[in-house]
Amino acid sequence: MAFSRSGVFAALLTAAVLLSACAAEDKPAKSASDAAAPAFPSTYKPLPGVLTAIVGATVFDGEGGRIDDGTVVLADGVVRAVGGPDTPVPADAVRIDGHGKWVTPGVIDIHSHLGVYPTPNVPAHEDGNEMTGPVKPEVWAEHSVWPQDPGFSRALVNGGITTLEILPGSANLFGGRSVVLKNVPARTVQAMKFPGAPYGLKMACGENPKRVYGERKQMPMTRMGNIAVDRQTWIKAQEYMRKIDKDPKTTRDLGLETLAGVLKGEILVQNHCYRADEMAIVLDMAEEFGYKVAAFHHAVEAYKIADLLRDADVCAAMWADWWGFKMEAYDAINENIALVHNAGACAIVHSDDENGIQRLNQEAAKVLGDARRMGLVIAPEIAWEWLSRNPAKALGIADKTGSLKPGMMADVVLWNGDPFSVYTRPERVWVDGALLYDAADPRRRPVSDFELGQPGEGDLK
């Protein structure tokens, strides 16, 4: 019997479909006990770097230390040495003259929506808020991240951003999982995922959820409704955990799985919250259900409860002077960050904006000026903690990045002057020891495919 090529292909295709169908029938559905295996794992691999020594610079180590005429050696993707002018420099290192310049850890933005609200800002790109219900812990921000967002490279070259957390929006009480990314060019979000970084859970309190759902005549439509829905949801999560303990073959529930991860301490709560009274209520709710808030974001009234934040070991991520755009953002003071820091709490400067992320160093400089005018003098090397170590702490990655210590990831910025000056820009930026940006080399500027534009008619001939 003769067979045509197309007939053979059809027969093979039919057999493959039948075999796959049989395999699907034989394969049991995943249970809750199978959830430990990571889904969408990081495929990030550091780009190659070279042995590098920056000599003669002023060094802020990210943990409050300062070295004048300092030396920083980068090798094999990590910080190899940090010290004064007598620090040994390997003979084969690329030496960079840092005199008159500053070296810092890369800036970490704990609150960004790059990729989920990318540039250009058009409705087709609005993928950060799943506004189909107030409780949406089952959604993951990384499934909306567009790696070609031009904002990533702009944050790198203009702001020295080497790590950032991408969060869902704040329309919901439970907005979904956040993801921590290394700020590197990549085709997939998995290739940007910070290896080993814990997930976050975006929560929100206050005006946003009660407005979004109150307008639909749904619960919540009040602040007391917000907390009631929160508590009911945590009770369901506790019940889900008890059910799994009794029956490991319990069918998976993506939303409750995320909440269980929080209750087990594996997923960090990043809580959008402005008012001091609401932050205090959330702290009580966290104690009731046995979870921890990693950071309150925006936290315009954090200065009112700085002692409570300190005692609970909860960070506050804040703006320098962005306020007044709604009632819960009204009772702000420009000294907010400085007062939280002065009380011994963990203070962070964050952006929540594709433009603000390009100048977080300048936002921190504003805070230093406002603090000085009120009689509170904070050393600039101390203030750099707001941009590196403290956000790394709130993201659960302070053992890997956020400071210039031997063995830490070589996420480093060389600034062409004092980084708290409006005239200063990044001169070079390294991520894991790979030089991704060099102001003197046009080839060392990541440009996404989207920015390259579309070919004209003549280019297609």
Structural class: alpha/beta
Q: How much of the sequence is in beta strands?
A: 15-25%
Unreliable segments of 5+ consecutive residues: 1-27
Looking at CATH, which topology of one domain would you report?
Answer: TIM Barrel
* CATH class division of one domain: Alpha Beta
Radius of gyration, CA atoms, in whole angstroms: 24 Å
Which CATH architecture of one domain is right?
Alpha-Beta Barrel
Indicate the mean pLDDT: 91
Measure the end-to-end span: 48 Å
Q: What profile does the largest beta sheet have?
A: 8 strands, mixed
Total helical elements = 11
Q: In sequence order, what are the helices and strands, one letter per element?
A: HEEEEEEHEEEHHHEHEHEHEHHHEEE
User: Going by CATH, what is the homologous superfamily of one domain?
Assistant: Metal-dependent hydrolases
Beta strand count = 16
The helical percent reads: 25-40%
Give the overall form: globular
Q: Outline of this structure?
A:
The chain is α/β, with parallel strands linked by helices.
